[in-house]
Design a protein that fits this description.
heterotetramer; A mainly alpha (83); B mainly alpha (463); C mainly alpha (236); D mainly alpha (111); A: 83 residues; elongated; B: 463 residues
Chain lengths: 83, 463, 236, 111
């Protein structure tokens, strides 16, 4: 098993664990953070599969902007709840 | 006159229309008129976007668009109805001009696409435009459900496309058909076909995923009702038909599963319509049943009658949804009881509504009868008796609840219902009702259309 | 308990797909794909690669052979930013106050950081046809620099009208370049400029121009979406 | 190996859509499903000893490359996914402003 196979095995297991946590997290903020971590792992998987273009796009858009939008919505919800 | 103008001009005008917010409805009317005029000068055939036609191996490098008789009819239905609906809603829905422009571009692209991933992109464009059209119902929860089901459907469709690409190495529908025919072992292709069938089935209101229809159409208004119920349904069923007749090979167990799914869909749709008392719910459940019948016709290869059924259904549903939604908006009460005697005051609109319903039911003298008669005889020839029995039973139930609806709407109850229909309304309803009547009695232009639809597969095969 | 049962069903669903894919003879196993059978094999022949002329073959596919998909996808972003504006349109908008109050140091430091991000994103957009990256990540970086300004500076409100004009201008220019290809050449989105030598900065005809326009459009659209999410109803 | 993980991720996203009732959680599981789908698409085009499809000059067009078409498809699909997610989040913000809850069963009870 070359380094390449071992590393992709670790990444696959990690992706499945983090995805399960993202779906079944109790608090919303945790599930959003797990989603962002999942997106970063997907970037690593894209690099493993020799797709640099997609890796950069997923990194900037997936874990950058989508997580920011989620957190803004959660912020406005927590603010509205507090009132 | 290149067919690509039908997609590109609405996009260009939509991009520019966000600067001139006030005139977006006017721009929409101009572009719709422009599209309808262009339809006269289009020549059929295949065009290459980007000009990448590789003469050496003659395989198509880039994306291609394909126009044949089937697509011309679809374009006529889509652009004509969007022009009509836009004209009627010009005052009440000012801010939806740009979204309707993009919906038109997406639907035209949907019908013309000859590349699977391009088809997925246009499904997304027209889908997102549809979610925004339903926001006019002011019901964010049902819009969110529609968005969710739409995204699930298009993800499944993309999954099916990718499997086909992995197996055949191409995304071009014409080449894919040749390769599938060369393979002709349907058991290999059950997974992608089933995924694409369910993926598109979400948009065409088929059984497994049509939970969103009740929320969206149940609270529809005079813009989102006709758009979703007739224009979007016509476009998606046209694309569905093209894929089913040419790409998918339905045999053996796959055919059995799909037929069961559709027949259950027909019965469930009609029974739900039978049992509901809200006017809009009756209409939306009958349109679910109609779309399942249409897809059933495509699956059994009756392409011509499925096309006529789509046109007849689109026309009658536009009239019915326009009339009902307009009256429900005025009285803002959904129950059939509250609309009793609606037509006793405005007779013209009432007669057009009755013509549309009778043609939907398939009574003689209307186009619905000819279609139903022919496809039932076709089924008899293919001796599929279970399907015939189901359709007869469904049309019986349909007859009962539509007649019951008509009686209630005609004969006035206790309180007086006064709903005014402005002139443009009456003109549109009369024109559509007349076309239903004319094609019912004098149907040889349709037969002329018959033979050149027949060779859809030949044209597609030879490319 | 329901979760555990659901998990079993999901695992079975995934397993079923894998087994179905396995016994499909046409479906290649992971990794042993022969590009010659696929259409993409012909993208690497020198005659055809010269036709488009971009060193990054993925960009030649995204903007050359399958340019119509990218046009469709730019429309999707346009529709979704239009939709977000339609859904969240309050009468009188007010910036949403965040919990922390940024002090002076954060504000000045963030302006320096924003300029660095912008430089990187313009580099990425301009070299879209040479190195990985391109219009989409470049545009998203422009939007993330606007996001940084929002977070670092409390009173910052980007000029929405400016983004709208930039977005509509870039979008219509992309479509017009396609139409010019139709008028001059034979087909829509035809590469009518000469494609030069693969690997140079000024190669691949209209592709760098379109990628710059896409970068500006994606950047302005996501920035206006972020602005919509960070404003809320003024409680008057 | 990553292809199996991608298919299981897709199935996990499906499971998330059926199990969750909270609107934000639904959007999260929709994103999980789409990430799984993108990983699957890229794994289709992977060639075992190929290199990234970036050509430095004309003469080394002969090397073994990875399939560029799935990467082009995923580039488009990622941005389409962002569009749908932004719309879904705007809708959820609108729903919360009017109904003050994000649980689907409570919302259906209200409607």
């Amino acid at each position: 098993m070359t380094f390449f196979d071992v590393f992709s095995l670790i990444i696959s297991v990690l992706i499945l664990v983090i995805a399960f946590l993202a779906i079944n997290a109790k608090k919303l903020i945790h599930s959003v953070i797990y989603l962002s971590a999942l997106s970063m792992l997907a970037v690593v998987a894209f690099i493993l599969m020799k797709a640099p273009d997609v890796a950069i796009t997923e990194a900037v858009i997936g874990s950058g902007l989508v997580t920011a939008l989620f957190i803004f919505v959660l912020l406005s919800i927590k603010r509205r709840d507090a009132k | 006159m290149n067919i690509i103008l039908l997609i590109v001009i609405p996009l260009l005008v939509a991009f520019l229309s966000i600067l001139v917010k006030k005139y977006q409805m006017m721009l929409l009317i101009f572009v719709a008129l422009f599209n309808v005029i262009i339809l006269f000068f289009l020549k059929q055939g295949m065009i290459f976007v980007g000009g990448y036609e590789d003469e050496l191996t003659h395989n198509l490098l880039g994306i291609t668009l394909f126009l044949d008789v089937y697509a011309v009819i679809a374009l006529w239905v889509i652009n004509g109805l969007i022009l009509v609906i836009a004209l009627l809603n010009i005052k009440s829905y000012q801010t939806y001009g740009t979204i309707l422009l993009l919906a038109m571009a997406g639907l035209n692209g949907l019908v013309l696409a000859n590349d699977l991933f391009n088809l997925f992109v246009f499904i997304e464009i027209s889908g997102i435009a549809a979610y925004l059209i339903t926001t006019s119902n002011k019901k964010p929860v049902s819009t969110f459900k529609y968005l969710l089901y739409g995204s699930i459907g298009s993800s499944l469709f993309l999954f099916g496309i990718v499997i086909l690409y992995a197996m055949f190495g191409t995304l071009n529908i014409v080449i894919m058909i040749r390769e599938i025919e060369a393979l002709n072992d349907y058991r290999q292709l059950i997974l992608p076909f089933l995924m694409m069938f369910i993926g598109l089935g979400v948009e065409a209101k088929l059984l497994p995923f049509n939970h969103w229809v009740k929320g969206v159409l149940g609270t529809s208004n005079s813009l989102s009702g006709p758009m979703i119920a007739s224009v979007y349904m016509a476009a998606t069923t046209f694309v569905f038909g093209r894929l089913i007749t040419n790409l998918f090979q339905f045999e053996g167990s796959l055919l059995l599963v799909v037929t069961i799914l559709l027949t259950v869909g027909i019965l469930v749709g009609d029974l739900m319509a039978f049992s509901s008392t809200k006017v809009r719910e009756i209409l939306l459940f009958s349109s679910i049943a109609q779309s399942s019948i249409i897809v059933l016709l495509f699956v059994n290869g009756l392409v011509i009658w499925a096309v006529y059924l789509i046109i007849a259904n689109a026309l009658s549903k536009t009239v019915m949804f326009l009339v009902i939604n307009h009256s429900v908006q005025k009285t803002n009460d959904d129950e059939v009881e509250s609309l009793k005697g609606l037509f006793s005051h405005n007779l013209l609109v009432g007669t057009t509504f009755t013509i549309a319903t009778l043609s939907l039911m398939g009574l003689p003298l209307f186009i619905g009868f000819i279609i139903k008669l022919n496809y039932l005889t076709m089924f008899a020839q293919q001796n599929q008796f279970i399907v015939m029995i189901v359709i007869l039973l469904a049309s019986l139930i349909e007859g009962i609840y539509l007649v019951r609806l008509l009686i209630k709407l005609w004969y006035p109850g206790d309180q007086k219902v006064e709903v005014k229909y402005h002139l443009a309304f009456k003109v549109v309803c009369v024109v559509i009702a007349l076309s239903l009547l004319v094609f019912g009695t004098y149907s040889n232009p349709l037969n002329k259309l018959d033979h050149n639809i027949d060779e859809i597969s030949e044209v597609v095969i030879h490319g | 308990m329901k979760k555990f049962f659901g998990l079993i069903v999901a695992f079975a669903f995934g397993l079923m797909i894998i087994l179905a894919l396995r016994n499909m003879s046409g479906f290649p196993a992971y990794g042993d794909v022969n590009l010659a059978e696929r259409i993409s094999g012909s993208y690497f022949q020198s005659a055809i690669a010269e036709l488009v002329g971009s060193a990054n073959i993925v960009t030649s596919v995204v903007l050359g052979f399958r340019a119509f998909d990218t046009l469709g996808e730019v429309t999707v972003l346009f529709v979704s930013s239009l939709g977000v504006a339609l859904i969240l349109d309050f009468k009188h908008k007010k910036r949403m106050e965040l919990a922390f109050k940024p002090n002076f140091m954060l504000k000045t430091a963030s302006y320096i950081l924003v300029s660095i991000i912008l430089v990187v994103s313009f580099y990425m957009i301009l070299h879209g046809h040479l190195s990985p990256g391109g219009g989409f990540p470049g545009g998203a970086m422009i939007a993330s620099s606007v996001l940084l300004l929002y977070l670092a500076d409390d009173q910052f409100r980007s000029k929405i009208q400016g983004f709208k004009i930039l977005e509509s201008a870039a979008g219509s220019l992309i479509v017009v370049i396609g139409l010019v290809g139709l008028v001059i050449g034979t087909a829509y989105f035809e590469n009518f400029l000469n494609t030069g030598v693969i690997g140079n900065l000024l190669s691949a005809g209209i592709i760098p121009i379109i990628y710059v326009l896409i970068g500006l459009k994606v950047g302005s659209e996501i920035a206006s979406v972020i602005d919509q999410f960070l404003t809320e109803e003024e409680k008057s | 190996m990553i292809q199996y993980a991608a298919i299981f991720l897709f199935a996990l996203g499906f499971y998330g859509l059926f199990v969750n009732k909270n609107i934000i959680k639904l959007i999260v599981s929709l994103n999980v499903m789409e990430i799984g789908l993108f990983l699957f698409i890229i794994s289709i085009g992977f060639v075992s000893d190929g290199i990234a499809p970036i050509v430095s000059s004309v003469d080394d067009l002969g090397l073994i490359y990875v399939d560029p078409i799935p990467q082009a498809l995923v580039l488009t699909a990622i941005v389409i996914g962002v569009g749908t997610t932004a719309l879904g989040l705007a809708l959820s913000k609108n729903i919360f402003d009017t109904y003050h809850t994000l649980e689907l069963d409570e919302l259906e009870a209200i409607q």
